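Incident review: delayed structure delivery

Summary: a single-chain prediction request sat in the queue longer than the usual turnaround. Root cause was a stuck worker, restarted by the on-call engineer. No data loss occurred. The affected request and its eventual output are reproduced below so the record is complete for anyone auditing the incident later.

Affected input:
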Amino acid sequence: MKLKKILPQLATLFVVVLIFGFFTMNAQLNMENRGIDFGYGFLTQESSFDVQFSLIEYSGSDSYGRAYLVGLLNTLLVSVLGIIICTIIGVIIGIARLSPNYLIRTTAAWYVEFFRNIPLLLQIFFWYYAALRALPLPQDAEAIFGSSYLTIKGFYTPSLIWENLDIFIYSVIAAIVAIVFVRIHAKKLRENQGKHLPVLNISIAILFVLPLLTFLFGGVNVGYETPELKQLAKTSFKFEGGLSIPPELLSLVIALSLYTATFVAECVRAGIQGVGKGQREAAHLSV
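Output delivered after worker restart:
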């Protein structure tokens, strides 16, 4: 009886696979006739193009596979920064929308309606081609907190210079794995013998001691580098050293954060308003 019910689905799946295979073979034959390689072999070929910003070492002589890895890491960086910033802004705006103050409440509502109803692509264009283009040239930029500079060519800020960073990262991973095992052991000990281990204190100690040992015995060292203004030509200046954040990354993070924060704000507002009136009154009385 069950076989009769799934026979139509199996037949449909077979037809789809057959059609997909036919088109794949047809595409492969056509590409071979035109001398085009079919597959992922191109990932090992030289990319022959540069990427302005990269979290890892990259040049035009590297492969397409490494270029793909660079793009993936840049995407993750933008995503992480955008999530953190939009969450902070969204929570503040969401709470402000419920403020008893008319000015604060209206300003928060205006923010949500304004940024939510403008297409994201248009906001990215605005920040990149309008707002960031109005920034000063490197030689005219004023220092922010004495060591950072926001210019038309990007944001330059001090950075850490690591030695044997891989050893430090391995120690952090090992500490996280050790903490997981400690938590599992503490849970079994509590269930079988009724004993309690100070899991939080042990976890903090492991997370602090293992990376510290890499500085003492692992050859890990960290330095400090600030950006310095260098003159390339008579009218050309550039900051060297420190951390350089290009305007493309800035425009993406700013636009994504401001746009997505509107949805976070509405979720926060709805979540607060979803709490029962009695619970809200009880919370006010407890405060």
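Verification: Residues 175 and 206 are 6 Å apart (CA to CA).
Action items: add queue-age alerting; document worker restart procedure.
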